[in-house]
Amino acid sequence: LGGRRFHPEHLLCNGCSHGVHGETYFEKDLALWCEVCFHERFSPKCEFCNLPIKDRCINALHKTFHPEHFFCCQCGKVFDIGQGFMESDGKAYCEEDFMSLFANPCFGCAKPLLADYVTAVGQKWHRECFGCAECGRILTSDGFFEHDGRAYCERDYHTLSASKCAECGKPVIGRAVRACGKRYHIDHFFCSFCKKVLEVPLGNEASSPGKNRDPGFMTHNGKPYCKPCHTKFYG
Q1: Domain with 142 in it: what CATH number?
Q2: pLDDT score for 131
Q3: Secondary structure (3-state) at 100
Q4: How far, in Å, CA of 118 to CA of 144, rounded?
Q5: FRET partner for 148 with CA separation of 20 to 30 A, picked from 56, 103, 163, 210?
Q6: Residue 32 host element (H or E)
Q7: How far apart are CA 178 and CA 166, in angstroms?
């Protein structure tokens, strides 16, 4: 101790004056310290129990902990040495509890959303949870139809949204004929008498004219007719 010599009975702790001859002691600041006084004065304190940390020490959240006192503040699970943790407002959480408390929930399954998710119809979804509200088919964020705030595949959307062919009653998917205040499959828009496929006038949606389609149509009582049949029956 600085080159000085002591009688054994004079080898005393600088803090409590307890004799340390034959016991564990520490030297610091040119003084002797018994184990208790040394740790009380110089060892870091555990944030949880406020007792000195004499052996292994966890440094986290700008604080120090006994390894057994560094745990998830929600579930109490002790973190292993070197194990990662999540932090919020200066508190440590295991990943499961952190996600449960702070992550956005999936609208489909209510479980926490991680990095990869879909935003659609005003909600957030796991990709595997974003499906057609009718048939359950998995959808993509740019490949769905919305009806009444819900997502649908193309076929179910047309079925539910009343976008049906006035002739066959099945969903109209893709291009269609709009005439007489109704919608038709292109090949189902025909003369009400002779059943020839009719061509829509300019300004209506349809495919290019086919060789079997008449150039125009007439109506009577809300029904379409080819020009010859309309002239024959209604002048």
Answers
A1: 2.10.110.10
A2: 93
A3: helix
A4: 12
A5: 103
A6: strand 31-34
A7: 10
